[in-house]
Amino acid sequence: MQLSTLVADLDDRLDTDAYADVDASANGLQIGPDEGSVDHVAFAVDAAAATIEAAAEAGADLLVTHHGLVWGGLDRVTGRDYANVAALVDHDLALYVSHLPLDGHDELGNAAGVADYLELTDQAPFGTLGPVTIGQRGRTADPYSASELRDRLAGLDTGEREPQVLDFGPEEIRDIAIVTGSGTDWLGEAVEAGVDALVTGEGKQQAYHEAREAGVHVFLAGHYATETFGVERLADLVADRGVETTVLSYPTGL
To answer: What's the pTM value of the predicted model, to 2 decimals?
Structure first.
């Protein structure tokens, strides 16, 4: 497959352009030639030395990640940036990135993956950021208790990190909002929506008192752990087009 064709297909499927004004990440093809062929694509949550080397060792032509190398523009390429860019170029390995588009996509996204993992029904967009959304909300067929939901989230790729729980909500958890990664900034929206719990990856200090005063559970299941679904689903999508794929797992425990 031509690299330009695959990039255009992914950009279109993920609605990359819709997030251009709200995402610090340079989404789309971050590093690579305008033209080239792709026979093997590797997928990982993070673009880093470990995943670049693993992708090269697997024989990939393209590495697709959720967290890329370019954030808020690129003024100069030195230090770690130089080393990682040089490794990509040396290995003739292109880099495609999808940050917020891959968080919010209703089918392929990280939040949609967590919602499916929790077997939520009536799924709908959640987590407003300007003109787009970056999360999901839904309802359980059978209610979770706080301990049951924590145990379920512990089954994610947490790197042996136990989910943290701000246990301030109702005994039965039915309505759940999800913003993967660092999502406690959307706790206020969760409260306004009347959900019983917000599931995210990592928290901030002020979330404790906000959740306690609002009577809402907050589950911190790990930034990495909540953001593996998107790249795994993209891998399935690309594999269905006859391209060889490899999914790389490098849990951070964070």
So the answer is: 0.96
